[in-house]
Amino acid sequence: MSFRTRTGLVGLLFLLPCPALAQGPEIRPFPLTVKRNQVTLDAGLLSLGLAYARRIGAGPWSLGAGLWWAWEPRITFKQNIYEPLGAEFFARYQPLPLVQLEAGPSVARYFWADDCGECTGTFVGGRASALIGYRVVFLGPSVRFGRANGGADRLETGLIWVIQARLALGWGR
Length: 173
What we know:
- Helix content is 11%, strand content 57%.
- By secondary structure, the protein is mainly beta.
- It has a single domain, classed as Beta Barrel (Porin).
- Strands 1-2-3-5-6-7-8-9 form an eight-stranded antiparallel beta barrel.
């Protein structure tokens, strides 16, 4: 028997069981369903967030809203942003139970000077998060990009970012 004939027979031996295996039950390492209702508690270094999301239909998409607070978060603005308190709306995409991706608008009020009681500003922008985890614990970055105003002539564009840990609790089918 020639080398080409033997190679062809070995190839056929591997191909013959494929249609039979394809008919069998699909084995997945974890269920691909996202819970209908989801409450998340986010904690970063000097930041907290609480959000609620509800799944849309039977797919991996959810819509939600949340509140967040931070004390001197990491920023790229020239001036400091102290104690931002904000609200956000988001769309969450969870293609696998191990991954949560979010994006949406974010708004916050903050102080821009330590010693000034009337020095408040507003941040308006968007937020994006990418978290990886298992079951109820996730970890990943969250970035808010937008414009902050404070003072008479101060309008800046920049980032507020944090590495966060998330506790995600869900219920419902």
